[in-house]
Amino acid sequence: MADILASIQQAIKAGAVGVNLEDTDNAELLPVETMADRITGIRTRYIELDMPLFLNVRTDALLKSEGTCTESLRDVVSRGNAYAEAGTHGVFVPDLGDLGQKNIAMLVRKLPLPLNVIVNEKSPPISALEQLGVARVSFGPRVMCAMLSYMSKITAGLLSTGTSTRLGEHSLSYSEINSLLSTPGSA
């Protein structure tokens, strides 16, 4: 627990205003009570130190569950309620895209905290997630994974044909890159 608190303090000193805390340890889902104790300990400490902090707890109950979808969703709600009671500010549930809008809306209704999700190719449009009441959307590593996939296709082409023809596909010009990276109002 001390190492978690030290990491959070370092993050805040570096300018962070929020942290994600995961309810897994070495790929195993932690017991709810253990996680609630961690949340309470962290909350107590940042209040003592007068540190502003948004504590967002990620639950992997859907990813780690061996039960039915309904059982997994019940576990997410149960954990979310326990984590809220312990003092967290938000609940992050990865990979809800496969569950459909009905289940996402149910979680928004049953969780007492803002729901944060990570999107994938099966997720509803962001506007639909907003209408459902999702508070925060993350892309996680998805954009990087897409870029690495494309990079591997370029590399495979170079290795198999010795040509770099794929480099021109979907490439941005230097002007487009500069525009993308410039500060509004500059240049």
How would you portray this structure in words?
This protein has 187 residues and is α/β, with parallel strands linked by helices. Helices cover 52% and strands 13% of the residues. It has a five-stranded parallel beta sheet with strand order 1-4-5-6-7. The chain has two domains: 2-140, Alpha-Beta Barrel (TIM Barrel); 145-181, no CATH class.
**CATH superfamily grouping of the largest domain:** Phosphoenolpyruvate-binding domains
Instruction: List unreliable stretches of 5+ residues.
Output: none
Portion of residues in helices? 40-55%
User: Class by helix and strand content?
Assistant: alpha/beta
Tally of discrete structural domains: 2
CATH topology descriptor of the largest domain: TIM Barrel
Shape: globular
- Termini separation comes to 48 Å
Order of helices and strands: HEEEHEHHEHEHEHH
Cα-based radius of gyration, to the nearest Å = 21 Å
Assigned CATH class of the largest domain: Alpha Beta
Biggest sheet statistics: 5 strands, parallel
> What's the total helix number?
8
Number of strands: 7
Strand order of the largest sheet: 1-4-5-6-7
> How much of the residues is beta strand, in percent?
5-15%
Brief description of this entry?
The chain is 52% helix and 13% strand. α2 runs parallel beside α4.
Q: Tags for this entry?
A:
single chain, 187 residues, alpha/beta, TIM Barrel, 2 domains, 5-stranded parallel beta sheet, 8 helices
Task: Explain the layout of strands and helices.
Elements: H1 2-13, E1 18-22, E2 24-25, E3 28-29, H2 32-48, E4 54-58, H3 61-64, H4 69-86, E5 90-93, H5 100-110, E6 115-118, H6 126-132, E7 136-138, H7 142-161, H8 174-181
Parallel strand pairs: 1-4, 4-5, 5-6, 6-7
Antiparallel strand pairs: 2-3
